[in-house]
């Protein structure tokens, strides 16, 4: 078992988050740009997962990520080209439809946390017309100069509603020695139920969620795109880097800061060995196939046993 610094112990009458998976589309990942050693013909069908988190005491609802949007033509041209070449996708059910399965409407969601501004995580925010959005500030300049203001940008300038979006600056994250292996995090409800974790590496401003899933010590880590295959968390696989440039610039690595991404994966690997903790990637095909039923709203992801 991997070692990791301790997570915060539960307090009396501890608040926690009930977590449910949401459908956000299905992607065909051409693994050659994600996993070291994968061949051009290696293709894996994966989900683009989103999540509903409900606070045990206040019943406030948070959605983490919005999956893919059906209208592929809404994406910038450079993004559409990438999708066609490396990650074609379909959306049999989107996040709004997934919420509706359990009787929720977009206006029932108080907060939407977006891990980062890649196309398979921003979805379509327009139905969430009353929610407040949270993203990392590291990507703000690129967002403001996104497509169509900058025709060559792969970031859609309308990815989030600016008037209702909080950009988490570096100072918003508290330096901590008590949140397992993660050095910087924000206690969203100020009660130890849900933390937003600084997850630099994949792209500027990338954030993850660490949520307490029971009052007695169970946790879930929602890793976004910190890794694209569970084998990276286990240590069985490595991040691909195109040293020879055979795929063509600018695709050298799906992580903009590969070294920092690898360090963060190491932290997730340490966390994954902690009793009562589950680590879940946005594109975990094996988990999706095994949990299509009760883990999806209106069901929930069962807390991991202690």
UniProtKB/TrEMBL annotation:
Keyword Zinc: yes
One annotated GO molecular function: metal ion binding
Cited InterPro entries: MBL_superfamily_lactonases, Metallo-B-lactamas, RibonucZ/Hydroxyglut_hydro
Domain Metallo-beta-lactamase: 48-132
Name assigned to this protein: Metallo-beta-lactamase domain-containing protein
Cofactor names: Zn(2+)
This protein's record includes keyword Metal-binding: yes
Lineage: Eukaryota, Fungi, Dikarya, Basidiomycota, Agaricomycotina
Alphabetized UniProt keyword annotations: Hydrolase, Metal-binding, Zinc
Superkingdom of origin: Eukaryota
Stated family: Belongs to the metallo-beta-lactamase superfamily.
């Amino acid at each position: 078992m991997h070692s990791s610094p301790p997570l915060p112990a539960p307090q009396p009458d501890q608040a926690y988050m009930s977590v449910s998976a949401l459908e956000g589309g299905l992607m065909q990942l051409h693994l050659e740009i994600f996993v070291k050693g994968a061949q051009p013909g290696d293709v894996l069908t994966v989900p683009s997962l989103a999540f509903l988190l409900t606070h045990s005491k206040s019943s406030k609802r948070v959605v983490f990520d919005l999956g893919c949007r059906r209208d592929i033509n809404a994406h910038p041209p450079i993004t559409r080209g990438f999708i066609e070449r490396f990650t074609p996708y379909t959306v049999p059910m989107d996040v709004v439809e997934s919420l509706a399965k359990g009787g929720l409407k977009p206006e029932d969601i108080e907060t939407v946390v977006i891990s980062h501004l890649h196309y398979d995580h921003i979805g379509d925010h327009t139905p969430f017309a009353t929610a407040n959005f949270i993203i990392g500030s590291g990507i703000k300049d690129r967002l403001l100069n996104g497509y169509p203001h900058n025709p060559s940008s792969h970031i859609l300038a309308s990815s989030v509603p600016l008037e209702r979006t909080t950009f988490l600056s570096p100072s918003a994250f508290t330096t901590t020695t008590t949140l397992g292996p993660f050095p910087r995090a924000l206690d969203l409800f100020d009660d130890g139920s849900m933390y937003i974790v600084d997850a630099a590496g994949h792209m500027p401003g990338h954030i993850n969620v660490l949520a307490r899933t029971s009052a007695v010590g169970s946790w879930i880590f929602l890793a976004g795109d910190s890794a694209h295959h569970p084998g990276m968390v286990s240590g069985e696989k490595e991040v691909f880097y195109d040293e020879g440039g055979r795929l063509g610039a600018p695709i050298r690595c799906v992580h903009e800061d590969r070294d920092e991404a690898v360090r963060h994966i190491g932290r997730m690997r340490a966390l994954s060995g902690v009793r009562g903790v589950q680590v879940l990637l946005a594109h975990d095909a094996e988990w999706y196939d095994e949990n299509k039923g009760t883990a999806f709203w209106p069901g929930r992801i069962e807390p991991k046993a202690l």
